[in-house]
Amino acid sequence: MSFFDLKGTLKPLTALKQFGRKPHTIDFPKVSLEAADRYRGFHYNEIDECIGCGNCSTICQNAAIDMIRVEGVEGKKGDSGLRPRVDNGRCCWCALCVEVCPTGSLSLTTDYMYVSDDPDSFLWVPGIDNPEGKNKLSFTSADTSLNDFNRIPMPELEGMDRVKSFAEVVLGYNEEMARAEASRCISCGLCTEVCPDHMHIPEYINAIASGNDADAVRIIYDNNPLPEMCGKVCTRRCEDVCAIATRGDAVAIRWLKRYATETAKTADITYEIVNPEIKEPNGYKVGIVGAGPSGLTAAYYLALRGYDVTIYEANAKAGGATMYGIPKYRFPIESLDKQIEYIEKIGVKIHYNTKVGKDISFDKIYKENDVVFMGVGFPKAWTLGIEGEDAKGSMQAVNYLYMINADEKVEIGNKVAVIGGGNVAIDAARVARRFGADVTILYRRRVQDMPADWEEIEGAEDEGVHIVPQAIPIKVITDKKGKVSAIEYLMAEMVPDEKGGRPKPVPIEGSNKVLEITALMGAIGQQGDYSFLEGAYAEKIKVERGRFVVNEKQQTTDPKVFAGGDAVNRTADAISAIADGFRACKAIDEMLVKK
Amino acid sequence: MQEIKENLINHIKANFPDATEKEFDGNRLDFNVDKQCIPSILTYLKDRLGYIHLSHIACVDWLEEGEFEIIFIVWSPEEKMKVFIRTRIDRDKPVMPNIDMIWRQANTYERELREMFGVEFIGLEAPDEFLLEDWDGPPPMRRDFDTEAYADDTFWHRPGREDALDVREEIIRRSREEIPDFAKKYSR
Amino acid sequence: MREKATTLYLGPQHPGITGNMMIRLKVEGDTIVGATTEVGYLHRAFEKLQEKRNWLQSFTLMCRFCVPESDPMEESYARAVEAIEGREVPERAKYIRVMVLELARLASFMLWYGGQNGSLGLYTMGQWSVGDRNYILDLFEELTGGRVYHMYIWPGGVRRDLPKGFEQRVLKTMDYMEKRLDDYDDLMFDNAIFKKRTQGVGIVNKEKAIEHGVVGPVLRGCGIRSDIRIDDPYEVYDKLDFEVPTSDGADIWARALVRRREARQSIRIIRQVIDMMPGGSVYNKIPNPQKWTLPKGDAYVRTESVRGEIGMYIASDGGLNPRRVHLRGAAYVHAITLLEDVLIGENIADVSAIMNSLGTCPPEIER
Questions:
Q1: Structure confidence at residue C300 as a pLDDT band (50, 70, 90)
Q2: Whole-complex ipTM
Q3: Range of the domain at B64
């Protein structure tokens, strides 16, 4: 290797041929480089689609995203009202926030240049501070997401098998499925706002996910003494606003509550796990009319706070509509017994078969107690208002369910028609199926308008119940002995409402149909029975449009009397009744002790 | 592969009877030894059994158990086998024998462990500072040193982000929910 | 009494794109008699930061260990997490990972060309190779969304599938690169100045190599055929056909020859991968990242980066956050104890060239 390396000296000179080549660089700013389709530039958030769940803020590993209140965005059900703000001084554009956004509203754009002479202008609210980013979306989660959108399927008994008995249809999650389902939750908390009782949902779901079922039970019992019932039959408004439900299946909040409460197999074990702190008796007495969910809730929490509580229940068993209205295949009686036993264990006294107004007067309860709570419900059903409905074999669905749950025999024959589209109608239809009858439901609107739970409607169809929509019954036809033999009904057409409300069913002239039946059940609504309020009480405690008038503390127009449940609220489900009872308890406590 | 592992286990157990082994899938084999054996077992592996390449020296802080775990990973190009030699030392007085006469590169690893975890290597000759400059606090990689708290105390927070809110708190405030104290740790 | 030796401070900036590191040289005249390295300019404490980040958030820190070639770090992290959990990666994802790793290797070679020549004062190569590297960065931008830090390979697979027509663009770029590599040969390897400056300089012979635990091209430059891709194969390297070049000589010239041939092998691997890529999904989805825990255990995986063996040790205690993530780059060994040894007897002017040839990358040393 000498210094006179001719090849080594001349070869490099071939580099001069590069002079003829086009340069790599472009003439910026006359020509601009287009960023790639997937470029990770600044953020853009679709403000209307964003629900403010805060998942982006939690996953950001640089703590660059804050959730703040933004002008023009109000919080409402299913939306926290907060929106993300990105600190562009800390953001590293890893796009994890985009991957975990449940609605898919947050994306990155192809913008990558920002120049400003103000050193503090690096905090932006994407979507509001850069509206033009909408046209430049590049890195999105439209097709992919780190959220788990599929719910763990719930094992159930098969449709035609389960009609043969009253065995519970839903089989429940086992431990592995529950932990997997609980780990889908992103702990945003939007569900708690919609729950009438504001149960602490993310807390107990996270307890289940980390394996602490006992903690989950304690958290649930903090404001709900009938959680196993809710875990089986709640109307689950929480799942409607679940963040994951925006693009997938909602987290199975109700089934997880059921899983957690079922780990406490008896009332004794429940007592051991919850280990409630029962305060010393404070000398105040409370009388409660009706051992339905609202009465039981008020009783439980008042008893924990040291009150002397007595409940007067007209029926043989406690539970109200949850005992006598929900069929056993949805909610076994053993489950309710366990929960009532636990409530009685902490000191609540329940007098069964004691009807207020007959076995004991309301006046006596009023005078003997410092406060009275009424949870009397809507036990009476509305009549159908058609000719022949008082024939033999024509009954109200609520009464039918009551008798079946009270173990009485009811003759319905083998062809039953149920009028109505709510949960009561579906329950009655499915119970009748289990007695071997051929059941048809006649409902005046379309199937999608039925107020019943969609899972119940599907369950009914799987069990062979026929649903005839847009059918308006007009006459009950009886045989010579005065027993129901057929029902005549008209078909209806749906006419759109000019004011934008629900379309109305209008009967079509001449479309009469006749269905042969052996029993008819009406299930078109219920009302209250306030005959136990006699004399001055009936005047003092105001009733308006069939319901007690209460303020936001559940107090009626008589300050010593509180009320809750179906007789008060319009939502008419168990969790609202429980919420009413809880609110009443807090108000009573404030009124008597804390003042 | 299985024969190589068996062979190795027999060799090691013959000379170091207190070593406990653990087998894994693939080409990995673990040995747990007492810290006094470390120089001799590593020399044995390097000179006699062909594990000539020192791949890594790692340290894991098991704060709850009060111990450091030091792991030496060696590799044999002939047998294509990775061997982990693990040992545990006391966290309050961590002392290890120096091995940089076996592999010179161990000097760098030991310097880092000394600076970052506070492990003292007897006989190590190296300048005091390695990665940190003018640091007089506790060894920073130990789990009881909280860098977030240190950063909050020492550095200035740039203003402009004080209006940050928590979504769960906001919803609790709006619906007037009251979460019991024992449940608060599950909120996020 | 006159001192024979003086102490000079060299650094922390060096000609030749190595990174920030200082060397305290004891020189007598022009010859070095002692060297002490001082690192610490780039310590960002990533391993400590991971104590507060969960398994998914930690992956975004991984690529920042090394700037020119960030993908081997991401890939080692992903593979180690999958080893602890036992998670399967779809075949297509493995092929895409290999393609990304080899593209990163090529891009890093481009920088190395610039650095090695720049350290000798030959700046034209640097201009050429960094310019050509941009075409590879364009490919990365199209695939991953970022040019330098990709954050694309994560536990379970890769983040997104290939865009439409991507394979054609990669092949076109590879054709272009091959032609350019011929041009580089003319300018660099047939260059008398380069040869004279690099032959016989910075010798690392076999005994020194084993004692210091040398890896990568430095080891291959001594004549020992050692490469993680064939010794301890990972991803789909055992199905691919490529050479591992070696060269005797053990000096900077030998190592440069090794690297020159490796660049062509990378192009060969990329072409094979595109040919053999199966269909299917590219991601085995993890559960909700905020609740994803790994079983207790640990794993050590090794990857071959352009500088040598990268080892990633991860220990899990069964929780949401990693217990310990410890990366060891090739430069950890080469740039401290080995460098101090090799520099003795060399000229001051050659220090930069030796550093570059050994593969010094201070961000990797200090993390």
A1: very high
A2: 0.89
A3: 2-158
